[in-house]
Amino acid sequence: MKQIVVFSTLLLALFSCSPEATTNKKIAGMWYLVSIDDQSLDTDYKEQLHFAPDGRGGTITETKTTKGIPKVTYGTYALLKSGSISISRTKPEGGYDDQGYDFTSITDNNLTITQNMNGHKVYVYKK
Questions:
Q1: In the prediction, which pLDDT does 9 show?
Q2: Mean pLDDT score, 50-61
Q3: What's the chain look like in SS3?
Q4: Interatomic CA distance for residues 50 and 73, integer angstroms
Q5: What is the dihedral of CA 18, 21, 26, 27, to 10 degrees?
Q6: pLDDT tens, 17-43?
């Protein structure tokens, strides 16, 4: 019985420390876009991402504000073992918009992701 408890504890520790779990903890919360491809944002534009982790993924809320008018998009995300994130946003007219990004850099307060399709843009966010 003691061996089962020790084995279960080790197994739990192994899965709770996976790269995806660590990344999911780091990206949790609200992030504010500061630049795209090293270009500052237009003063009339703001973008926010809110990550709400759930397992090895979670839900995402994206708010894009242009000239004071917000547009909110909801979706889900999944973290991949390759150091990538797949985001699936719902389209207002129906269907989904799926995008993939690579984590270029991630710390507690800085997030840099590179779009891995449709142009390879680099997005820099801060908490």
A1: 47
A2: 94
A3: CHHHHHHHHHHHHHHHCCHHHHHHHHHCEEEEEEEECCEECCCCEEEEEEEEEECCEEEEEEEEEECCEEEEEEEEEEEECCCEEEEEEECCCCCEEEEEEEEEEECCCEEEEEECCCCCCEEEEEC
A4: 11
A5: 130
A6: 577 888 898 999 999 999 999 999 999
Provide CB contacts within 8 A for 122, sequence distance 6+: 36, 37, 38, 104, 112, 113, 114, 115
CA 38, 41, 53, 102 dihedral sign is: negative
Is-contact 54 79, C-beta < 8 A? no
With a pLDDT cut of 70, the percent of the chain lying above it is 87
The more confidently predicted of residues 96 and 67 is: 67
Which among 24, 18, 16 is positioned nearest to 106, based on CA atoms?
24
Q: Amino acid identity, residue 12?
A: L
Under the banding of pLDDT at 50, 70 and 90, the label for residue 5 is very low
Residue 83 CA: distances (Å) to CA of 5, 24, 27, 91, 104: 32, 11, 13, 26, 9
